[in-house]
Amino acid sequence: MRLQKYLAQAGVASRRRAEELIRAGRVKVNGETVIAMGFKVEPGRDVVEVDGKKVELRPQKVYYLLYKPAGYVSTARDPQGRPKVIDLLHGVKERVYPVGRLDYATEGLLLLTNDGDLTLRLTHPRYGVPKTYEALVEGIPDVQDLCRLTKGVKLEDGWTSPAEVKLLWARRGKALLELTLREGRKREVRRMCAAVGHPVIKLKRTKIAFLTLEGLKPGEYRELTKEEVEHLYRLTGLKES
């Protein structure tokens, strides 16, 4: 990697400004001053300093959208040795972590990234990022049941926040509900539905904010576009560094 590119990616300065620092003799590599523009360094091996201060390369931020199948855990490690969502990211070299969790039996949209700031904003209830689920439930909820889900349900850890709830279809003693929540409690959808007398048979997350599973099959993933990442930053009030 060229030295000026290394300095730019490390956040020291723009590429042009980095070239000026090199020309001015303010940059050292392994203790030696470097003024050549074409000088190459090996990240992780060479020691780069600017004005006597060590400069380390920032890990590149990456963002992936995964269609999580049921039967996978949303953790980087599992003491029980069950399949992990990380195992599905074939070819991804960076160390990434799930943004929130989907439980073992739940399928659907899961984001994975190494961007800690964005992860916090997407998962903290304070920022109210909507997550949409489809829940196949036992029985057919009536108007009162739907109203309870919409206004909030009392669980063992307190009342849930208001939710958007739609009855998509009902037949043969089962119903498909669409629920949009803005908080992220553990197993919240399952507990809400059980609390109104309609336990979940199957659960799938279909959206996070504007992101959907379009074009993906269970177990497949894609990288977010630059525009999608910028949209998430605006949505959560983050400034790009």
Automatic annotation (TrEMBL):
This is Pseudouridine synthase. Belongs to the pseudouridine synthase RsuA family. Keywords: Isomerase, RNA-binding. Pfam families: PseudoU_synth_2, S4. It comes from the Bacteria. One of its GO terms (biological process) is enzyme-directed rRNA pseudouridine synthesis. The lineage of its organism: Bacteria, Bacillati, Bacillota, Clostridia, Neomoorellales. GO terms for molecular function: RNA binding; rRNA pseudouridine synthase activity. Its EC number is 5.4.99.-. Residues 1-61 form the RNA-binding S4 domain. GO terms for cellular component: cytosol. InterPro entries: PsdUridine_s_RsuA/RluB/E/F_cat, PsdUridine_synth_cat_dom_sf, PsdUridine_synth_RsuA/RluA, PsdUridine_synth_RsuA/RluB/E/F, PsdUridine_synth_RsuA/RluB_CS, RsuA_PseudoU_synthase, S4_RNA-bd, S4_RNA-bd_sf. Gene3D superfamilies: Alpha-L RNA-binding motif (3.30.70.1560), Pseudouridine synthase I, catalytic domain, N-terminal subdomain (3.30.70.580), RNA-binding S4 domain (3.10.290.10).
